[in-house]
Amino acid sequence: MMSLLIKSRLQSIADRGFSIIGLSNQNERKLPPREIIKLCHILLTGRGEASGVAISREILNRYQVLDEQEKTEFFRLLLSEFSVEPEKALEAANNYVSDPSHDSLDKLLAVSQPSRLNLLMLLNQAPDATQFLVAMRADLLARLRQEPDLRFVDREFVHLFTTWFNRGFLDLRCIDWNTPAAILEKIIHYEAVHGMAGWEDLRKRINPEDRRIFAFFHPRLGDEPLIFVEVALMDEVPSSIHSVLDNKKTDVTAFDVRRANTAIFYSISNCQKGLRGIPLGNFLIKQVVEELRTEYPALKNFVTLSPVPSFRKWVTNAREGKTEFRLPSAALTALELTDRPDWQKDAKMAATVEEHLMPLAAWFFCNSNANRRPLDPVARFHLGNGARLDRINWAADLSENGMTGSFGIMVNYRYQLDEIERNHEMFANKGVVVASPVVIKAAKAYGSVLARQNPVEASSEAGVASIESSGVP
């Protein structure tokens, strides 16, 4: 955490800077976006420390009170007024061609970089600026669909945040019952996969010896968690979240943790919308694996129990003919059962749906999109992190969220320590989905079914992505 002394020092510098540049920090008059942009230009002129901190704080404070339309205008102005100047870049490029010296290259690089990057770095000198900038990027991300050109502004945020939030600056903490209540309340609030109803649910996830929560923090964000993972220590790989979150269990210390040979990562929650896309999760899992191995040397298996949030929507699109392939008529008939209320509670209907949905799920996970990546975002995360697709579990999450997202299907991704780097390279460089033989067999079999159903499209979306067998069935 940034010390109170440093924060007080920055605040003092900012207050002194107001008098230097003629601004009043008591002036609460709302400034329009263009006036705030003028302050941004002033900041880039390179004033002294006190005035720079003061202007940075003023810009961030003024931005926060803008309404939604004004924030959109502010981002548009960031794009139009702080981008690369083509004439200067072309002149510097021509000079480098004529004189390929270190000096001319340095000048070319300087004019090829948008001034937004330097602006964001200067804004970060204000007190609590990092947290404000994370919130600003969250506002920006919410506008990218309607304003796709703003992705060029986002590139500078991503560039800086990837540096500011790299592993060397992050603090890993184990969350337990002695953690300050303010942080515990945030853990309850931010849990995004398997919601907590309150303190009792949280107690069952951190108080037993076989349960852990680990979170990353950043010194500039204080006690605001960035991301956290929930872990269960068990003696087998679970096929259902209900065996992990058994709220009926009254003796929370019943399991002897010394018997544990498996660590289950059953929930990962990102806490800051403004850090979306910044690689925090892969750092977190790998660091937690090392922490657990040190504390419990008997642990041999590191496996997730992961949701499939996009599967049902994808199946719905396939049923409605919105994909490039057609499902077999038998599958369409079986999937009609899922439109009935509580179909999963009827053993006969559930068995019929399972017969058709599970092989389709295997194909879904192994199939690639136009970018040679799996269709499921959770799969992209874990496979990109070096895990292998180990097992697809039926009736694994029968909660409302589980049924709505994936018909109750969940997936185990296995982090085999001696395979992680190889799997990562295979996926990152070649788009190869590393999976268990059982999953691969099911995916290829259903790919053949779809190829017969869709002879023209068989070479594209109805095919199976590059996959490779790893590990035991």
Q: Which architecture of the largest domain does the CATH hierarchy give at level 2?
A: Up-down Bundle
Structure annotation, total helices: 19
CATH evolutionary superfamily of the largest domain: Malonyl-CoA decarboxylase, oligemerization domain
Q: For the residues shown, what is the average pLDDT?
A: 88
In whole angstroms, how far apart are the ends?
46 Å
Strand order of the largest sheet: 1-2-3-4-5
Helix-strand string: HHHHHHHHHEHHEEEHEHHHHEHEHEHE
Biggest sheet descriptor: 5 strands, mixed
Helix content: 40-55%
What gyration radius follows from the Cα positions, in whole Å?
A: 26 Å
CATH topology of the largest domain: Butyryl-CoA Dehydrogenase, subunit A, domain 3
Poorly predicted segments: 458-465
* Total number of beta strands: 9
Given helix and strand content, the structural type is alpha/beta
- Tell me the fraction of residues in β-strands, as a range: 5-15%
Coarse morphology: globular
CATH class category name of the largest domain: Mainly Alpha
- Number of domains in the coordinates? 3
